[in-house]
């Protein structure tokens, strides 16, 4: 534990740390079992994981024909089998037809609205070694944890822009970003925003319940990839390595009383069609188990990160991403779909008219730099960003652009009594 703490706190790696990193990368026997829960991890009895993974493993995208896709589009209600066809390569020639059907479903269930929010990273310390992430504990980056006073100042800057929903994010370090620390951030956020979301490390039911009491409305967790073999090779150390505990995070959050939960795979880490299937089925099964809850999907692709020139953001093309999002909308017509600033302004403008219902604005993935971003006033101390964004439009610009596309931008759709 002491060695891990050193790796998190130091911006330079010792010879011992570099040797450990090398062993983790090249000797699988040095890694822990990704299916083994750690002593502080709560296990819940749920059959959802087995159902999702069985369906994903049995899925052969190349087994579907264009006739299967046409039949799926003809059905009023999209079945699981129809969804599999819509995700397949056979559906690519029918993308325009899928987009028309997706737009119809979006209009039917969400009207002409698009919801705007912004993320706020409050710490970038991390105890995991995930090879594709800018925050991973071995990356030589500027680490920073905002104080409560700094968090409140960032929130004040954001709130003055007119934003009414905030998503709080941290690196995955229980030492630096404790449950109590995140809880205090939720209490502060409730002073300035109508809706408060969390994208932090997975927790036990008791911890999620506490954060809900502090003001958190929903929890988003990226499974990253549902392919266990691939997951094991990408998450080499830390709590995040425990695959089933991460999978069950949203269900624990719902058991704790959270109003909503969000799901995502990071498209491009593994077979994106299988990951998209597993993500949607993860939602589909939990919808039936917790019908009172709100569900949302995100569709991020890999982006370039600090200290890593190997990441190729083109592993999943824009047409393929559009296909996935349209398939999500047709299969899960009531579920919100978020498209992040990882994507270009042109893509987000277009997909918001078809299937997306939620878009981030005024985005920074760095720590403590919102005043500089929003006002131009230089910030003395900043923490490095997790990844490069593609769409940096402010709330005002995004609001104007969405309205120009014929959409109705929404900042809050809840009435609290």
Strand content: 5-15%
Strand tally: 11
User: Briefly, what CATH class?
Assistant: Alpha Beta
Share of helix among residues? 40-55%
Poorly predicted residue ranges:
1-10
CATH architecture name:
Alpha-Beta Barrel
Number of distinct helices: 17
The Cα radius of gyration reads 21 Å
Strand order of the largest sheet: 1-3-4-5-7-8-9-10
Distance between the termini: 46 Å
The major pleated sheet works out as: 8 strands, parallel, barrel
Describe this structure in words.
It is a single chain. With 417 residues, the chain is α/β, with parallel strands linked by helices. It has one domain (2-35, 56-410): Alpha-Beta Barrel (TIM Barrel), CATH 3.20.20.70. It has 17 helices and 11 strands. The strands form 2 sheets. It has an 8-stranded parallel barrel with strand order 1-3-4-5-7-8-9-10, surrounded by 7 helices. A two-stranded antiparallel ribbon has the order 2-6. Helix 4 (66-74) packs across helix 5, helix 5 runs antiparallel to helix 14 (318-331) and helix 8 (179-192) packs parallel to helix 9. Mean pLDDT is 91; it is low at 1-10.
């Amino acid at each position: 534990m002491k060695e891990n703490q050193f790796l998190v706190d130091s911006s330079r790696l010792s010879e011992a740390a570099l040797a450990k990193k090398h062993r983790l990368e090249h000797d699988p026997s040095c890694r822990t079992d990704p299916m083994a829960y750690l002593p502080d991890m709560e296990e819940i009895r749920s059959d959802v994981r087995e159902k999702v993974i069985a369906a994903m493993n049995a899925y052969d995208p190349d087994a579907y024909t264009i006739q299967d896709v046409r039949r799926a589009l003809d059905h009023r209600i999209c079945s699981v089998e129809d969804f599999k066809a819509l995700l397949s390569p056979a559906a690519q020639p029918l993308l325009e037809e899928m987009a028309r059907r997706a737009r119809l479903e979006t209009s039917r269930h969400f009207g002409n609205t698009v919801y705007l929010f912004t993320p706020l990273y409050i710490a970038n310390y991390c105890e995991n070694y995930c090879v594709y992430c800018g925050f991973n504990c071995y990356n030589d980056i500027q680490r920073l944890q905002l104080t409560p006073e700094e968090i409140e100042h960032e929130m004040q800057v954001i709130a003055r822009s007119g934003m009414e929903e905030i998503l709080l994010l941290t690196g995955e370090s229980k030492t630096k970003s404790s449950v109590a620390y995140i809880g205090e951030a939720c209490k502060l956020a409730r002073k300035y925003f109508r809706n408060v979301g969390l994208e932090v490390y997975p927790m036990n039911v008791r911890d999620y319940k506490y954060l809900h009491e502090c003001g958190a409305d929903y929890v988003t967790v990226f499974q990253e990839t549902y392919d266990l073999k691939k997951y094991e090779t990408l998450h080499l150390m830390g709590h995040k390595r425990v695959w089933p505990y991460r999978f069950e995070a949203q269900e624990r959050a719902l058991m704790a009383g959270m109003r909503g939960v969000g799901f995502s795979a990071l498209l491009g880490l593994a077979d994106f069609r299988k990951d998209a299937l597993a993500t949607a089925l993860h939602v589909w099964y939990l919808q039936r188990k917790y019908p009172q809850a709100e569900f949302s999907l995100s569709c991020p692709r890999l982006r370039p990160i600090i200290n890593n020139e190997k990441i190729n953001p083109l592993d999943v093309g824009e047409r393929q991403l559009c296909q996935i999002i349209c398939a999500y909308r047709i299969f899960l017509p009531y579920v919100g779909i978020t498209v992040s600033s990882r994507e270009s302004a042109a893509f987000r403008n277009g997909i918001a008219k078809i299937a997306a219902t939620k878009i981030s604005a005024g985005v920074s993935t760095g720590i403590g730099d919102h005043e500089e971003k929003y006002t131009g006033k230089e910030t003395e101390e900043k923490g490095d960003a997790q990844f490069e964004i593609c769409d940096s439009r402010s709330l005002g610009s995004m609001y104007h652009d969405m309205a120009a596309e014929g959409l109705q931008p929404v900042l809050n759709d809840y009435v609290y009594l």
